[in-house]
Amino acid sequence: ENGYDLWLRYKPVHETSLKNNYQSVIKQISASGNSASLIAAITELQIGMKGLLNVSLPHVKTVNVNGTLLLGTPSTNAAIARLNLAELKDLGKEGYLIKSLQINRRSCTVIASNTDIGLLYGSYHLLRLIQTRHSIQKLLIVEKPKIQLRVLNHWDNLNGTVERGYAGSSLWDWQRLPGYLDPRYTDYARANASIGINGTVINNVNASAKSLTKTYLLKAAALADVFRPYGIKVYLTARFSAPIEIGGLKTADPLDPEVIKWWKLKVDEIYRYIPDFGGFLVKANSEGQPGPQDYKRSHAEGANMMADALAPHNGVVMWRAFVYENIKGEDRAKQAYQEFKKFDGDFKSNVLLQPKNGPIDFQPREPFHPLFGAMSKTQLMLEFQITQEYLGFATHLVYLAPMFKETLSTDTYAKGKGSTIAKIVEGKLESHQISGIAGVANIGSDINWTGHPFAQSNWYAFGRMAWNPEASPETIADDWLKMTFSTDPSFVVPVKEYMLASREHAVHYMMPLGLNHIMNLGTHYGPGPWDKIPGWNAHDYHLADAEGLGVDRTDKGSNAVEQYFPEVRQKYNDIKSIPPELLLWFHHVPWKYRMPTGKSLWEELVYTYYSGVSAVEKMQNTWDGLKDKVDPLRFVQVKQLLAEQQREAAWWRDGSVLYFQTYSKMPLPQGFKVPAQSLEHYKQIKMPDRTDK
Ligand code: BDP
Fold this sequence. Notes:
Chitobiase, domain 2, Alpha-d-glucuronidase, C-terminal Domain, nine-stranded parallel beta sheet, binds beta-D-glucopyranuronic acid, TIM Barrel, six-stranded mixed beta sheet, alpha/beta, single chain, 11% strand
């Protein structure tokens, strides 16, 4: 096995009585209609049941035997309409019902929904029940997504490279599109549909205007045609200066009538090729990208101009809030809030503002972004990073669902207790019209899609949590392991336990106790608390000195805490109530400060770095013991990657501890082995870079 089949492997159910039972419940499929989505659902059920149960399900018109799987919507299937299923009323366009029922005195399983996409989602759910060995008798499952736009952001360039992508090159073969449709596009769509992802931004936020030219639009349209049956809309990033670069205009000023007209005509053109085009994702006035501020216009004016062009077609603008260098001398963590909060209420109804989960940049751990809760009149779309830019690329096994959960379940207190980020993103806190969530994809041309076999779990978990932000990382890991590797509890239990803790381990060996941005500043890989490159100095992010460590963002420092609601602000502002895992994000703490554990800060820092590395070593042992339970190729891949992870975790630990020791001037606590090499050695380690020739 090479991992290509992801969680859709459909390996045979070996447990005899379970298999017999499944076979008696599902013997044939009854469905009417011939939409591409319905056909996709039936095909998937047939492939899945053949693999799992070794049965070829006949597709029949009527319910005439026990064990019929009836699939349909009330508007296209008379048998479903006759059932008068009350549950369907609240299910919207994407929800579904799976119910065990008697029809014509026959035992049936019904998958019903209001649209054929709901049927596809329901089919994947039923398959998952079997893949994870749940009972499929007496079913009553009612599901609908809590967030409307569940979108992958591909940072893919037209030349095939992927910004911050570690799994090969881009999936999109721009040269051979639109004529050649790689079968992989369909498998990509199947995988996404199976977890409820319904949108994909196919190009980089650092955008090329070329992707909006007719040539590339026709290629994007071909992808959209492949994805449509699977309920997935295509979106594009829009370079703000495109009217100049490909339109021949002299300006891209969003209030200029020619510019307004250009975007309107461009959008009309896009919808001619892609009738269900989703809309634009825009990175403006951020890290050198053009934007409305180039013309002394505001983010709101820029976003609204595009929104007006898209509105007649029901398209949306996803406007990113990742800005941090426009207010000179200001704490980076405060800048997005300062730039955007004032525009609350100014955005058109088809604009979503998209902040990242934290205020700096996808660090291993960040406090939540203060814009969540602060813009009640704005639809806020949350951006996670699935690709592990700061979490070990595709080398380290880091399961991200606990991190997603940490953000989603955080209480902003915006409207009192219980104002969680999940509720804000779901649009429930303020009853917004549109809700959305984005994940920067970790997918590429590698045969297993994500480079590390376990990185597939992060794509999977993002989809499941986008569908239901309250879903448990544990259940998701359990499902994913059973579908992707094995249902054997002696495999699932220890591996799941490690997955759930793996993000914390990575935080421990990279940036514990609220440290951040101390990676190598060029590659974003490996330790670099000593690093300096033009425009960046890692020291600014940790401020180590003879007294202590950490950045004072309290009311005595940069006062970033002020951007949070009082309950959160007080908690973060007070060194006694700050959660230890965020301590150094908000406080400059003396080396001798007593931590809640009784250790000094210095001891705690060392202890935490070492514990992160030991945890990886334990996982290596666990994995070695599972050799007989995993197919050989993936066993060896993970074994080798864990060994790399261990080496690099030790590199992080040793480099960081030795570096911080030059400030603390304190010895390692008793029992901790002094790093094998000098600090100079760790400083000199150079990672190969993508720019190497
Ligand atoms: C940073 C990445 C950079 C992205 C940027 C963004 O290093 O490659 O372009 O985020 O999100 O984390 O725009």
